[in-house]
Amino acid sequence: MKLKTIKTILSHPLNQNNKLPALMTFFKRGVVIRLHHHPMVYPFLENTSLVVEKGMSSAELQIYTGLYDLYEMLFLTHYLRPGDTFVDVGANVGVYTVLAAGVAGANAVAFEPIPTTFSKLKRNVTYNQLEDRVDLRNLGVGDKAEKLVFTNNLDATNHVISNSQESAGATIQVPVDTLDRLLADKTANFLKIDVEGFEANVINGAPDTLANPNLRVIIMETNGLSDQYEFGQNYLHNKLLDLGFAPYSYDPFKRSLQKLETTGPHDTIYLRDLEFVQERIKSARRIRFRKMDI
Question: Where is the Methyltransferase FkbM domain (predicted)?
Fold first, then answer.
């Protein structure tokens, strides 16, 4: 696991000319967490922070890279505005939620099904004093109201256990409902879905949410994990195309979008109403990051 993390750190775009300092940060934190077992606060983007403890892999990657999902995260900060509603399905410890509410100033609705992870999400929201902008929901999201069994000891990779899967580790039963019911009184402007392969079920439970023209952006995990469930990645991709979305890559340094022929290897930015989106990102304020304005 450590070797995989090191490879991830060294291959990150922001560490190409910064490999030795990045490795030093990794090894220094390894020493610190052996001596200091309590949560620690690290500076994040602009005036935000992350409260991180041992085992919080998604938050730790932000420490080692600056912004792990570099292109998606900077797209989010360039696109969102105060008054927008960002919906974070599979919020984990709240990295994207903190960016949306703490940097972009948007409102956020964050769904995290695992209670222990939800407590860390809540802690990050509270530490950044974002309670008035973030609606926290300790729930799962799917295609119908039910209770599903989730893994409970895999940190950022906890997931729904399907009928064809087995789990050798700890599990927990979690209430799940559809986005349409859970967002009945809200209008989503930006939807991020990271549910370890259960993305199609989330989409299938959100026809009204997706039909709203104010929703122009969906960032979704597209690493092939959905193929282990009833609806695979091809189904999901084609459904979004039918709804008028198309996949794009983003260069935050040039603020330019490039249409893709297929999905990205990890995450994909899906957009519709391209003219509106382009105007948003070009007119956004510059984000202060690593002594640069982006």
Answer: 88-227
